[in-house]
Amino acid sequence: MTKISRDGYSFNQNDTIWILNKDIKIKLTRDILSLDSSLLDGFKNILSDYAQEMSAHHTRNMLFMFRRLIKFSNGNAITTDSILNWRASLTRENEWYLGSLKGFLHTWYKRGYLGISLEVVKLLETFNIKGNKKGKSVANHCPYAGPMTNNELLSLVSELNELWKQNRISFECYAYINALIITARRPSQLKQLKMCDLIKDNNDYYINIPRVKQRHSNFRKSFRKLAVTEDLYLIIRNLAEDQIKKIETHIGNTLPFEQRKLIPIFMSHQTLLEINKGNVGLYLEKDLLHSTIQEMKKLMVEFNNAQHAISERTGKVIYVNARRFRYTRGTNLGRKGVGVTVIAELLDRDLCKIPFSPTAEI
């Protein structure tokens, strides 16, 4: 029962661990495996479909939510009582758990797999469940997790430049933080960048940034072209050249132009050890050489451990994460009177998921 995940990774539906992409693997835990055989088969079938058609992140979320649901079943079937008992245990803050699984269960029934009855589907259709509330730290202008003030952002930029000049952070860290500040994109997008995404058009500079939040979008299949500064373009370009040198030194061979274009901007140095002249082309075509999310997090930790920029609101060192740069960009655009639709496009985000008021002030 070998299947191919949406990101091109093979997994066996009968195994307990499914590797869906470079960052995400899911495990069928004991509570799942102890289900009645017909219910278990139905669940494996629909989860396998999701793994092949949807994002790995969404598939993993469906597994997590289903595990919450089966705590209220007898292990033989998902019944209307199971659904009602689970819903009764949820609060206003987490009723979105059921809402997120609603479509999964409906698709399960629609595809004819065992385990979900028409009665369960009809019950689910009567529910009007609010989605997950987002952006509390933004709405409250939290000085620790929300958008930063202009002065705080300027302090971080100054600190970043000084750390690089003093050789206290790696060039990869320097490039990553600059990319977060200027593009306001997610780490999961930046880690997919390749050298071919850098564009120079006379005196204008752009980066084609992969989109990642679309459930049916595969690895590097959808992009948005973003205008960037010359400084960021040159920083990322220099990092790409460094990565080329590392690969060529490791394999003892010069890469042809077509392969150079596929060099990851942010590269997994652990995976680099696996490549050779014979397989380097395969590694460059897929996501194998790209950094994992954990490796991207290490770059952020590197910066946080080194920087000492002080918040004007707390008097303490500013805590930095990638999300805060996105919050800051969105809030600043809102303060300038930019509409929510434009903000959503500039942040490469669905309109319905903007977590802040476009007129927010800090």
Automatic annotation (TrEMBL):
GO BP annotations listed: DNA integration; DNA recombination
InterPro entries listed in its UniProt record: DNA_brk_join_enz, Integrase-like, Integrase-like_cat_sf
Keywords: DNA recombination
GO molecular function: DNA binding
Protein name: Phage integrase family protein
Species per Swiss-Prot/TrEMBL record: Neisseria subflava
